[in-house]
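Lecture 7 notes: from sequence to structure.

We start with a single chain of 191 residues. Read the sequence below before looking at the structure.
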Amino acid sequence: MKLWLAQDSEADKLLGESPFALLVGMVLDQQIPLERAFAGPKTIADRVGGLDPAEIADYDPGKFAALCSEKPAIHRFPGSMAKRIQTLAQIIVDDYDGDAAGLWTTGDPDGPELLRRLKGLPGFGEQKARIFLALLGKQYAVTPKGWRAAAGDFGKAGTHISVADIADPRSLDKVRSYKKEMKAAKSAQQK
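Now the structure, written as tokens:
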């Protein structure tokens, strides 16, 4: 699987191979550039020596927060993100036996059920859960029944509105243009 989110070959390779890394990248994808967010799992893996959910969940919280704060920090709010990542890791360990792909394989969930599961993760509100569901369907070949409808506009084919649609430099430019247009429209409405 070839992803192009971190725009760094090693970081993108990890995202393509590790469902947990992809989840962590999505957790980090707020208030920082998406490339930095999706490079975060590789940075953590390099510092810890891997990205095993059980190991992350068991890590001393203070030491994990310090590790996430090392320069370059994984996020502009490394302490709060460290807590979210450890909470996410614990959910994966407790509910899916340490296998992040269990979110979309355990019990063969349909799109609405997978969306519900995603919304139960730390840092995943309605929109982020829908975007991640679209990312799974469009780029990770996870296509349970009803996934496009559950993902809403983010699941539509041929769109360029979120990270789910980024596959190369051209699609990244299209997503950035769309976001810029939406921001300008929102700003104009507020005037």
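The chain has eleven helices and no strands. Keep this in mind for problem set 3.
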